[in-house]
Design a protein that fits this description.
Length: 113
C-alpha cells in the first residue's frame, strides 16, 4: 500500500510542478487579471505536493532514483530563488540519505541470507 502512496505522491508532485511551469511559460497569463492569485495558488499547491512526497517512504530502487530527482530539483530551485524558509529541501535530502541506508542495509541482509 505504501508503494502506491509513494507513486501517487510522486505523480502529484510532477503534476504540481507542471502546473507552475505552464503558468510561468504562458505569456498571455501575464496580461490576465488575477494572475498573481493563480500563480500563488499554483505555487502553494506545489509546496503541498512537495511535503506529501517528502512524507512518503520509498521501498524500491526506482523510488530512490525518483527521490534523488526530487531532491535535486528542490536544491536547484533553492539556488535560483533562495532557501525555502521551512527547509524542506534539507529535510528531503535527509530522507533520501535515510532511504539509501535502509535500502542498502536491506540488500546486505538479503544477500547474506
Amino acid at each position: 500500500m505504501s508503494e502506491r502512496l509513494f507513486e501517487q505522491a510522486y505523480a502529484q508532485w510532477l503534476h504540481a510542478r507542471a502546473a507552475v511551469a505552464d503558468f510561468d511559460a504562458d505569456p498571455k497569463a501575464l496580461e490576465d487579471a488575477g494572475v498573481d492569485e493563480r500563480g500563488e495558488a499554483a505555487l502553494a499547491e506545489l509546496i503541498k505536493a512537495e511535503w506529501r512526497f517528502i512524507e512518503q517512504p520509498g521501498s524500491y530502487l526506482k523510488d530512490l532514483r525518483q527521490r534523488a530527482e526530487f531532491v535535486q530539483q528542490l536544491f536547484d530551485a533553492s539556488d535560483e530563488a533562495g532557501d525555502p524558509t521551512d527547509n524542506r529541501h534539507r529535510i528531503a535530502l535527509a530522507g533520501l540519505v535515510s532511504e539509501i541506508l535502509r535500502y542498502s542495509g536491506d540488500r546486505e541482509i538479503a544477500d547474506a541470507g
